[in-house]
Amino acid sequence: MVVYLDVLFGTNALMDYITLLAAAHLGGVRVKRLRLLLAAGLGGCYAAAAAVQPWLAVLPVRLLAGLGVCAAAFWRQNAFARVCALYLIVAAAFAGLAAVLGRAAERQLLYGAGYYFAVPMRVLLLAAAAGYAVSGVLLRGDAQHGPLRREVEQLTVRFGSAERTVRVLHDTGNDLAEPVSGRTVVVLERAAAQALLAGRGIVLDAAQDPAAQLAAWQPEAARRCGLLPYRAVGTETGLLLYFRPDSVRRADGSVLDCVCAVGPEKLGQGAYEGLIGV
């Protein structure tokens, strides 16, 4: 069998891009396409190298290479470990489908540590579409954070000298707005809010009433903060401390005009750190 390295590189770069994109969608992670293209290119280079050096195709090296591709695409994402696991699962699903389709077509679709499609493009597209659909049906729901599929996005919040990237859930029940400006309110877990407020020397006290805390702060710090009335199940009325951040940016670089409120100790059991209305 004659194998062309340029075809091997292109095929595996394409399949890695599709696999990374599927893992990102299933994990509720937004990532720049340029990073996905770079990571897919690294995957294509690895597949070509494994064809020249067969020892690179052994299972431990393949797993390390897969983690390297994930790191190139998703490093510094809060859900890095989960998205890596999803990538490996989707990649295994694609490889299994390629093996089945190869037997059906009596063609070799797998070579070394990657794919080699010496078949019409429609077979390649069928394998990719089927693998994406199967992984979506099997993993959609639990892959993000719970039994219901809900959108999660990343926000980078800066306040004073502190900056933090948080995952927030779009919650249809959150209709909070700042009383004066009408800005959207992002409710943050207490630990995430404290990490940001520390940039201006503000320390939260969970045992103290929000109004009393605000009154005790220095005027320079307090003028960037306020109290937000709210209602919740089991609570007739209440007040939330909130602050006006210096900037809030989405994963695509766009600016979100909002304020941030200090919420409870835990919100999403590690799946997200904040809530925002839809």
From the structure above, extract its key features.
single chain, 278 residues, alpha+beta, eight-stranded mixed beta sheet, two-stranded antiparallel sheet, 8 helices
Could you provide a short overview of the structure?
With 278 residues, the chain is α+β, with helices and mostly antiparallel strands. The chain contains 8 helices and 10 strands. The chain has helices spanning 5-26, 33-52, 59-74, 80-105, 121-139, 190-197, 210-216, 219-222; strands at 110-111, 114-115, 152-159, 162-170, 184-188, 225-232, 235-243, 247-250, 258-262, 274-276.
Walkthrough of the structure:
It is a single chain. With 278 residues, the chain is an alpha+beta fold. The chain has eight helices and ten strands. The strands form two sheets. The protein has an eight-stranded mixed β-sheet. Strands 1-2 form a two-stranded antiparallel sheet. Helix 1 (5-26) packs parallel to helix 5. It is elongated, with a radius of gyration of 24 Å.
